[in-house]
Amino acid sequence: MLTRRRALLAGAAAVGAAGTAVALGTVPAREPVRPPAPGPRPHRAVQPSAYRLRPLTGYGPPGAAPARTPVRREPLLHVPAPGRTMVLTFDDGPDPRYTPGILDTLARYDVRAMFFVCGEMAENNRDLLARMADEGHVVGNHTWSHPLLTRLGRRRIRREMERTSEIVDRAYGEPPRWFRAPYGAWNRAAFQLGAELGMEPLAWTVDTLDWTEPGTRTIVDRVEDGAAPGVVVLSHDAGGDRSQSVRALRSYLPGLLDSGYHLTVPRRGPA
Ligand SMILES: [Zn+2]
């Protein structure tokens, strides 16, 4: 395990050396003070086209994110930060059968996480996105219908990403600033379009393979064995029976906190 952790740390250092613009919040996991952002926010009405792709004319609104987001060639695999910090991510939701249980556990331990949502799931569960916003979680874009992007043309990819950013903006209160390709299958168009929409690509370090329903204990073991500074953990709150994922979080989250880990979410800084 030590060897594995060293490898993870080496990887994290490499990402840091690449000049990534991400940083982790340093709010301790059990710190009662809420992080300054995102926090509760009004569910404002926005122009439907506020974050749509624009021609590169330089006439975007002041502070528009797209011009500042780099086009990467690989997704980020870790989130470097000082100390024993990790990020928990949950994909494919929200699902009213499982997402509330995950949110309840995170709230119980005052921990923030990332949810890479699919637009078609978010559309019918806007209340869950609003809850994520209210409780300080970060919502990322995981496409509309979870296709294999490498088999789609550029127009379809763009549509998948744009529609999802739109529904997230409406339900969560702001457009997503993170993107994760379904199945971890990235291509050049996904990196380019994601950057144009102001999103950084985030993959993961530790895959719990929870979607195979390997048993709650196995999921817990995979998280605990993979725990190391900068690690991003992949789990799922939708796409099948995720009751094992919900139960596993209840077990490994207090364990990680007892081991001195801070579970937090990345904050995008200026590029
Ligand atoms: Zn997925």
Features:
single chain, 271 residues, alpha/beta, TIM Barrel, six-stranded parallel sheet, two-stranded antiparallel ribbon, 8 helices, globular, disordered N terminus, binds zinc ion, NODB_dom, Glyco_hydro/deAcase_b/a-brl
The proportion of strand residues reads: 5-15%
Q: What fold name goes in the CATH topology slot?
A: TIM Barrel
Tally of separate domains: 1
What series of H and E elements makes up the topology?
HEEHEHHEHEHEEHEHEE
Task: Please give a quick description of this structure.
The chain has helices at residues 2-17, 99-108, 119-122, 126-134, 154-172, 188-196, 216-226, 243-258, and strands at residues 22-24, 85-91, 114-117, 138-141, 178-179, 200-201, 206-207, 232-236, 262-263, 266-268. With 271 residues, the chain is an alpha/beta fold. It has a single domain, classed as Glycoside hydrolase/deacetylase (TIM Barrel).
SSE arrangement:
Blueprint: H1 2-17, E1 22-24, E2 85-91, H2 99-108, E3 114-117, H3 119-122, H4 126-134, E4 138-141, H5 154-172, E5 178-179, H6 188-196, E6 200-201, E7 206-207, H7 216-226, E8 232-236, H8 243-258, E9 262-263, E10 266-268
Parallel strand pairs: 2-3, 2-8, 2-9, 3-4, 5-6, 7-8
Antiparallel strand pairs: 1-10
Helix pairs in contact: 2-8, 4-5, 5-6, 7-8
Bound molecules: zinc ion.
The site of zinc ion has 5 residues, from loops.
